Amino acid sequence: METTYNPMELMITVAARNLEDGAMVVVGTGVPVAAAMLAQMTQSPNLTIMFEAGGIAPLLPTMPISVGDSRTTHKGLKATSMAEIMELCQAGVVDYCFLGGAQIDKYGNLNSTMIGDDYNKPKTRFPGSGGANDLASLCWRTMVVTPQNQKRFANKVDFITTPGFLEGGTSRVEAGLPANTGPYKVITDIGVYGYHEESKAMMLLSLHPGKTLEDVKANAEFDIIIPENYETTVEPSAEELRILREKVDPSGVIIGRG
Amino acid sequence: MNDTKLNTGIGELFMSPNADEMRGFLRNKKKQMKNKLTTVAEAIDTYVNDGDYLAIGGFGGVRIPTALIHEIIRKEKKNLGFAGHVSTHDCQLLSAGKSFNRCDAAYIVGLEARGLSKNSRRMFESGNVKVTEWSNGALSWRFKAAAMGLPYLPSRVMLGTDTFKHSAAKEVECPFTGQKLAALPALYPDVAILHVHRADVYGNCQIDGILVADDDIAKASKRVIVTTEKIISNEEIRREPGKTVIPYWCVDAVIEMPFGSYPGNMPGEYFSDEEHLKDWLVAEKDEMQLEEFVGHHILSSKDFYEYLEKNGGMNKMKQLMQAEHLY
């Protein structure tokens, strides 16, 4: 078993460890679903995986291509509507949502709508919210997995598609979003970040092996808070890598991206 | 509660959320259980007009009414409005046909894990399409509000974001708790096109697996065209009434269309044709190439069966059926 790992394998493994047994999580395709599958096959056999299109608690045979395809209900407990999934989130049942990469600012606000200054004539149009705005508004904790660079870690996102802590402090609650919800962790190829308790600005929690504080700073337009104490990320174990490579993503669709 | 001001989205509201208009329409709608079997061509001719607001069932590449969308392109329907409620391959098709000029967008121009559609992006980056922003949940609840006969539903999404700012939602104060909520206007489409697993000739429909929003869309829309994998007898419907997710009075036209969701996935029946969906993304890189591609697959095909033939016919369908069941 090759125990060296690539950044994608590290991100998925770290993300998976954040999903504890018994939790409920809504995931998207790609890295989030890979992480949820790995968690389910390791420390969290009773993780309830949900999909915004209506699939609840499948035993995923392979990674889905769409959050609505047949795999998302394979041996599942329930197949329902998108409205019901969002209603469950709104009712407070769902612990985590797991969103993929996008432009992100220091308060965890995400852009997946457009690049440019003119909304009516965008330089680049992206899909928009999809379910991301709903999930990040309603689930207790929002986790984001994304590669880290200056472009993605933007001082100001061109469009706030999905709410993080908005302008920081108490602005999220003031906007009317449910109390005690919001961004929880950001997992990148450089480190793991959380948010400062009061200012709600992004803060380093752990640095991946071989990465430096210079890497953290050089790959973000905004200042990331570096606390006195931060950890070094625990490397993926041989067992985690084996399951990830053999069971979660045997054809290397996601981990092959390195 | 605080006295902060309540915001209103600046996006255009394309359809009136007035529930009384729909009540009047439904009162006068003929509700006899009559045989509604027809053809794709006839149904699109009769029920889809230029300028109509369209809702499409399914989930972009899952349980979509592909044959009906192809016919909209062949008949050159124009200036449609549409609900981009996870619109992936359907958005690609409508963009290829340049069929619309306004869109309620929750998820457009992308194909989820497959990547982005170059041509859908061209359409939306042209400045010729009016867009109002929403989230998937918001659009689902807009259909639900209409299905419930209400002018709006309150919700706790979109608040504080640019998605809200470019939507046509309004912040309201809860009369009971004083909390700030986002009021989502009901969405009553002119016409909906759906694909289901089984229906009888009257339009009583059964769906396996996820519903997405099809039940609410059917109740919210003035006219509904349904393609079905299979026509079943009315006796079979009556044997398990709990399975009827769309009742006959919602439906205007029924067409039997096996493999009707191709190249999309049909839960329990066949998986998506990833090769063909990839061909689409490749063809879209160049406008000339796309024109040829659409000409070959859609415009020059006299019907959906010819399109299926061009893509491998029964042999291909068998492979996709096996892929669905993980053989």
From TrEMBL, chain A:
Record-level Gene Ontology MF annotations: CoA-transferase activity
Domain of life: Bacteria
Listed name of the protein: 3-oxoacid CoA-transferase
UniProtKB/TrEMBL annotation, chain B:
Listed Gene3D superfamilies: 3.30.30.40, Glutaconate Coenzyme A-transferase
InterPro entries xref list: CoA_trans_fam_I (IPR004165), NagB/RpiA_transferase-like (IPR037171)
Any Pfam family hit: CoA_trans
Biological classification of the source: Bacteria, Pseudomonadati, Bacteroidota, Bacteroidia, Marinilabiliales
Record's keyword annotation contains Transferase: yes
UniProt KW Transferase keyword: yes
Keywords: Transferase
Protein name, UniProt field: CoA transferase subunit A
Transmembrane segments: none
Gene Ontology MF terms: CoA-transferase activity
Superkingdom in the source lineage: Bacteria
